[in-house]
Amino acid sequence: MLLILMYHRVYQVAQISNAFETHLRFLSDHYPLVLPGDDLPSSELAICLTFDDATVDFYHLVFPLLQKFSKQAILAIPTAWVADHIAVPIQERLALQEMAAKHYQTSTSAGLCSWEEIYQMHTSGYVHCAAHGHKHLNMSALPSANIIQELEYSKSILHQKLGQLPTTYVYPYGRTNHKVQSQVTQYYPYAMRIGAAVNANWAGNKGLLYRVDAEKFWPFGKLWSYTETMRWHFKYFINRLRNK
Known about the structure:
By secondary structure, this protein is α/β, with parallel strands linked by helices.
């Protein structure tokens, strides 16, 4: 089975404790950490780490830990709002990131990773860069033409900036529907939403992969319970029956 964990910002907790480092060390010691398309073990749970929004704390805090433990993760990037280079002190950037992730606009780009930083992480081999829309819009609320624009722009820009076509699309706000998913699968082999469920494999539910909110666990220094694991397995079958 495959558990895809969803993270956003880690700075507020990580700056006053080593909770995230402890969390990542535990995961790397006890589970295979995988990326889309990797072989999955037949008899144990594999975990994929995904980080939304490309806020600067990923570069400042998460990336060094991935290097330290030699592990990989997905970074989902809203391509319209990323600047080429940012010459602002890191503490100022960290203070901006919460607003940057809630009010996407050029004036808040300092709160996000720059293309210079993203390229460095991409070439390290520890970070798998995924599309998170172009303007981070709710795809389920857009006309077809705008959906295609979001998909084409995000894919084209990631290819241009990184020299490699992205294979993964992470839905902004975790929202989609059948019409949107049918279009996404024409551009990306893997698509991820919020679904509070595990996955049987990378094929997902007609290409749709479910993610679980990791922020309910790591800041408090605990892992999920057996009951929660069973709930995610149950939700997986319910999601498939409802085709959602």
